[in-house]
């Protein structure tokens, strides 16, 4: 079994819990997920099976889309609704739509974030959440991420209330913390804030509409329709530059040989998907020392 299961992750399960359950359902150990989701978050979680486990790093690097609810006036230890309240500041004056749109515009494009203490980022060989659980706050490395789109989903012209909530659509690069983005939006509006809800609507080129719940996956397996739970590797890696090769070169690629870069891909920077008769044989990258040459990064023997 080779392919990607477009799982709609339920609330209350870790991403690793989902991998363990899929291993049992498809009776194979060669399973991995692409792009961790917190337990309280639902949404698209690509599960790679068999040869598809070789593409996890590429799928993780693709952009993601989220729908997030932001609460203005309350901040928490974890920057989401799971944490303890750190600060409250009731909203005394209504916040206008234009004020929110201005804040969202300021955070669109390349921005710098500091990962939250309750996150899996490693500092000195230890995850930040481990320090946080010990009550230790340490200096965290900044990271640059890209917000491709940040759109207000509510139609209100005026937002009233002691604590204000509104939803946004976020399209972002790998490594973006939506929790931290919520806090940053609050700062621009002059209030503490946190992310009160989050749904991932797209990841690795997989959209919400393509996803299956665990119940749907189990039903298909029970009916002997196991193949229907998988997306082919090709449909997930469509974002990579494509190089279609001929018979002679295909044999060399299967054996992991170095190959020349075709003219139409000379100026690409990232990985290149090598196809033969419509199937991905391998993913190649530019050779670090030999100009004009590609070297294999992943070869899909069983695809």
From TrEMBL:
GO biological process per UniProt: mRNA pseudouridine synthesis; tRNA pseudouridine synthesis
Superkingdom to which the source organism belongs: Bacteria
Matching SUPFAM superfamilies: Pseudouridine synthase
GO molecular function, one term: tRNA pseudouridine(55) synthase activity
Membrane-crossing residue ranges in chain numbering: none
Catalytic-site annotation from UniProt: 38
Alphabetized Gene3D superfamilies for the sequence: Pseudouridine synthase
Alphabetic keyword roster: Isomerase, tRNA processing
Residue span(s) of domain Pseudouridine synthase II N-terminal: 23-178
EC number(s) per entry: 5.4.99.25
Catalytic reaction list: uridine(55) in tRNA = pseudouridine(55) in tRNA
Family: Belongs to the pseudouridine synthase TruB family. Type 1 subfamily.
PANTHER family linked to this entry: PSEUDOURIDYLATE SYNTHASE TRUB1, TRNA-PSEUDOURIDINE SYNTHASE
Job description of the protein: Responsible for synthesis of pseudouridine from uracil-55 in the psi GC loop of transfer RNAs.
Name of the protein described by the UniProt record: tRNA pseudouridine synthase B
